[in-house]
Amino acid sequence: MSKTAEKQALLDKIVDAIQDVKGEDIMIFDLSKIENSVAETFVICSGNSNTQVAAIAGSVEKKVRNELKERPWHVEGTENAMWVLVDYVSVVVHIFQKQIREYYDIEELWGDAVITKIENEF
């Protein structure tokens, strides 16, 4: 499998896992054309509570581990689950509680990225 296909498979599993636990406002930010960006791709989504944010993070880790045999390089923010980051190196998943996402305005921060909005399935 090519690097591109591997990354696409990872992105698809991450989005599926977020949707499995009703994560909202899913967006994929392609940062590959941005100089000095910390990753090639960000996946950003929102949950309504720390319980849901933690469940989304757990779902992402489990689905990617079970179906692609990959583990995140780094996970942080699980203590208070206001903003959990799951880092797969080329793809970094940011799971926010809604008000935290609004506060940090990530979309504005990475405004130069190519952004794909994923429609909710429910």
Automatic annotation (TrEMBL):
<dbReference type="GO" id="GO:0005737">
    <property type="term" value="C:cytoplasm"/>
</dbReference>
<dbReference type="Pfam" id="PF02410">
    <property type="entry name" value="RsfS"/>
</dbReference>
<dbReference type="InterPro" id="IPR043519">
    <property type="entry name" value="NT_sf"/>
</dbReference>
<dbReference type="GO" id="GO:0090071">
    <property type="term" value="P:negative regulation of ribosome biogenesis"/>
</dbReference>
<keyword id="KW-0678">Repressor</keyword>
<dbReference type="GO" id="GO:0042256">
    <property type="term" value="P:cytosolic ribosome assembly"/>
</dbReference>
<dbReference type="InterPro" id="IPR004394">
    <property type="entry name" value="Iojap/RsfS/C7orf30"/>
</dbReference>
<comment type="subunit">
    <text>Interacts with ribosomal protein uL14 (rplN).</text>
</comment>
<comment type="function">
    <text>Functions as a ribosomal silencing factor. Interacts with ribosomal protein uL14 (rplN), blocking formation of intersubunit bridge B8. Prevents association of the 30S and 50S ribosomal subunits and the formation of functional ribosomes, thus repressing translation.</text>
</comment>
<comment type="similarity">
    <text>Belongs to the Iojap/RsfS family.</text>
</comment>
<keyword id="KW-0810">Translation regulation</keyword>
<dbReference type="GO" id="GO:0043023">
    <property type="term" value="F:ribosomal large subunit binding"/>
</dbReference>
<protein>
    <recommendedName>
        <fullName>Ribosomal silencing factor RsfS</fullName>
    </recommendedName>
</protein>
<keyword id="KW-0963">Cytoplasm</keyword>
<dbReference type="GO" id="GO:0017148">
    <property type="term" value="P:negative regulation of translation"/>
</dbReference>
